[in-house]
Amino acid sequence: MTDYNPDSVLIEHGIRPSRQRRAILKFIAEHPTHPTAEDVYQALYKKIKTLSRTTVYNTLRLFCSRGAAQMVTLEENEMRFDATTCPHGHFKCSCCGKIFDFFCDKTLAAASMQLPEGFSTNETQLYLRGVCKECNEQQSAVADCA
Asked: What does the pLDDT read at residue 66?
């Protein structure tokens, strides 16, 4: 993701760029593992001495409210963040715990079309759980996950 420009994304979403905001957005964009706020903080606080956990949480909340990122909640007690804001699904491996993006525009559109009359959608997310390719290839790990 070498051509990713956090400044233009921030400005496009009406967010004033700052050193901390750039670093946080760049980190979640470059780590498609859907990091938690704590993951972001742990990765950046040594590089940015003025960064606090509160700043990370507030910044991520700002990004989500303005559409510069999205919150992904695959587990009840765990919020993760994703810089990919176009419609897409998420797959969580029940063995390794990794989260993967997948793109399925037709499936997401079809789900929206099945809503009862008078309903409208402002967000569509699709979550799947199973075993990723890497874990499937490791037979011993699959036995541990089943």
From this structure: 96
Residue 61's pLDDT band, with cuts at 50, 70 and 90, is very high
The string of pLDDT tens digits covering residues 101-132 is 888 766 666 666 677 888 877 777 788 899 99
3-state helix, strand, coil in the chain (%, to 5): 40, 20, 40
Q: Is the pLDDT of residue 1 over 60?
A: no
β-bridge pairing 126-130 and 99-102: unpaired
The correct answer on CATH 3.30.1490 for the domain covering 89-145 is yes
Q: Tell me the CATH class for 6-79.
A: mainly alpha
The CA distance from 28 to 62, in Å, is 14
**Could you give the 3-state DSSP secondary structure of residue 95?**
coil
Going by their DSSP bridges, the two strands 99-102 and 89-93 should be labelled as antiparallel
Residue 61, C-beta contacts closer than 8 angstroms, at least 6 positions apart: none
What are the boundaries of each domain within the chain?
Answer: 6-79, 89-145
